[in-house]
Amino acid sequence: MKPVTYTSTLPNDLWELLEGYAGKLKMPKNRILENALRNYLGNLKRAEYIRSFRKAAGDEEMPGMAEDGMEDYLKMFDEQ
Q1: What is the helix (H) or strand (E) element at residue 70, kind and residue range?
Q2: Sequence ranges of the domains in the chain
Q3: What is the overall mean pLDDT for the chain?
Q4: Which residues contact 32 (CB under 8 A, 6 or more apart)?
Q5: Which pLDDT tens digit goes with each residue over 11-31?
Q6: How far is the C-alpha of 26 from the C-alpha of 32, rounded, in Å?
């Protein structure tokens, strides 16, 4: 996929931190921003999974569905 160019503004203090770490790490600022965004979005995705599992844990029908699913799973082995 072709990279996308974008323009954004940052608060001065954040820009100074970015410049400082780019110099310390000898890494381009855009790479630091890309890594930070990937980490942040990954954390959001993990938080979504955690919320969905917690919600499912409170669902009274979930144990029955899990048992039915396990039964179907075991039947697949019997059929082989």
Answers
A1: helix 62-78
A2: 12-78
A3: 86
A4: 18, 21, 22, 25
A5: 999 999 999 999 999 999 999
A6: 10
The tokens for 56 are 């499912």
Token digits of residue 18: 């970015």
Tokens 């082989």 belong to residue: 80
Helix (H) or strand (E) holding 40: helix 29-57
Residues in the chain: 80
Does the pTM of the predicted model rise above 0.85? no
Q: What is the pLDDT of residues 31-43, one digit of tens each?
A: 999 999 999 999 9
Burial of residue 22 (number of CB atoms within 10 Å: 0-12, 13-18, 19+): middle
Compute the distance between CA of residue 36 and CA of residue 53 in angstroms, rounded to an integer: 26
